[in-house]
Amino acid sequence: MDIAEFDAWASSLLDIPRFAKLDDSLNGIQVGRSGTPIRKMAFAVDACAESIRRARAAGAQALFVHHGLFWGKPAPVKGALRGRLSELLSADMALYACHLPLDAHPEVGNNAVLARMLGLCELEPFGEYHGVKIGFKGRLEPAISLDEAILRVLPAGDAPRSILPFGPRMVSKVAVVSGGAAFEALQAITEGVELYVTGEPSHSIYHESMEAGINFVAAGHYATEVHGVKAVAERAARELGIQTVFIEYPTGL
To answer: pTM for this structure?
Structure first.
């Protein structure tokens, strides 16, 4: 399999063309490689230099990431970007990025996996961004405690970035939008959600949450956006027959 064949598979699976005018990320192939076959593909959240080096050390010919190198407008090839590109090119390693399509996908997306981890039922799309809903909301039957909900999102027992426990002690109506989506809490408030889970906190949302009586949990940007990458890796190994390796490099943020 070459990178063009992987692109055709991933573009179809993740419906990448639908987000072409919505996402600042250059989704798809960001860095190409020679035409030799891809036998192993690495998967990581971020296209940082360390992820690239670890992918190379693992013997991968391509790297799939959620956060790529190119966002919205041309960037000068200097500094960190130059270093990362140099690492990729010297390794003849392709880079493939998938941002919003990986948040929104109903099966392998970050938010779909988070919803399953929480045990939500009656799922509906939630969290409108540029006219597209990229998260999900649903119900917990029976209701569970806020502490139990946090443990389901962070099963290793890691501490969330922020907890604003201003809602009911037992929660049933839950919404999730991974990453930097603090302000989608306002949509959650409008829709009567009792617990809103995202990645990053915001000072501005504190008083809104308190006055509305909603629980707000910022579980971490990395921690909420690692799941889709892993799900795509599992799907690629199963459907494409390639070796995959996940590069774990958490930021703690």
So the answer is: 0.96
